[in-house]
Amino acid sequence: MLLERYKELSANSNTFSLYTEAGNGKLGCMYYSFNSNYRYIKSYLKNYETFKAADGVDRNEWEMNPEHGQEMLKQHTVKMLQSKLFSKNERVYYQTRKGETLGSIPIDYTENEKWILIFLILLDAYFEDIPNYFLERTQYVLENLIASSNGSLDITKETMKFIKECSDKPTIDMFSQDYIYIDTFFQPYDSQDFLSLYLNSNENEKQKLHEYVRSNYETKARNCILSKKFKASGVYDRGMVIDNAKVLFLMEYFLQNMKFDGYEDYTHKIIECYKQIELIDEDRVLHFIEENREVYQMIYYNLFEQDMLEIDETVYEDEGIIPIEKIDNTTTATITKFKQINSILKRKAMERANYKCELEILCNCASHYFTSKKTGQNYLEIHHLIPREFSNEFENSIETVENYVSLCPRCHRLLHQANDRERTMALNSLFAQRGELLKARGITVDNRTIKKYYGIEE
To answer: What is the pTM of this model?
Structure first.
């Protein structure tokens, strides 16, 4: 039954394509951050070193590829921004403090030591326009795995077993591991939950499937999903699936321990978790992290303690505080400066809105107001129309009053918690008010992109 069902999926051109391809919108890869140019975690260090040629250079001066007339470095711009290794100001890309930290990883560190240092640097990246991508994506993966196994699958055990047994083995030996089928079929298609069938099959049925896949791979018969997906020089390889497993192993641990007892507790526990699957010199890994504390701690704040980055309630004078250019937001060294800027812009935004909710007409907010004991005016909260997580997407700083929206608590919660229909209505209203004002500030964004930032697909 299991083998027959697998053959049916492979014979269907639609499911065959979906499960053999790794790009966004396909089903063949847990983490879309791994693709043709960024196959592995270590690819980010390699490509960062390549992209450094763009550091401080006007894009008009970038080297062109004579074969197709495009910029040589164009393929890296999206990942370099989304990982926050680079930022940009007008047409110039420049390294962030985070990028400099990545580039300073000692070359004599082992590959395992480099891997964990790179991975921890990437944790607050917004790949695929999803803030804190690895955490959010893992939550989705785990939900699917729990549903397929009715909660019986020991994901930690399976990932650890696969990493330990397959890291140094050829690809063909992986097809006897349950994890390969978990990795490929974690997401059902159109109610066809092959993984559930696989996990509930007996060992004899699994063995027949394993032998069939091994035979197809060995003879280079590309008529089944796994032999096609893992073909030599294909879009997916052994290193990618190992990295997927390592990310899943660590991220499951993160999600089980979201309440770390501060930054030091987080750092030490993650290293201890990683040591369960790879050999490293813990002392020198922790030494590097401590040397670059301002970067690694900022990533921790973005992941687990965003309240540390909330707007300061202290009243500041605005003379000389608000800069024209963007500030590097990948280091804790800029937190105080950001809080000063935010506090001033918060006050200006409320004054600009005459201390009324900017969704008042749409949502009839007048009856929801109450008086703030601090200002003596209607109590309002400030919301970034373009979320801070996506600041790297823009040539100019989004820390401007045009991007600060004054909302009553109800409407603020609506933008974060309501269903997509109600949020779309609210965002349409706010964009109608702010779109041209943002454009005048050199912040060009359309309504569709704004909604994409909020996870609303049209």
So the answer is: 0.91
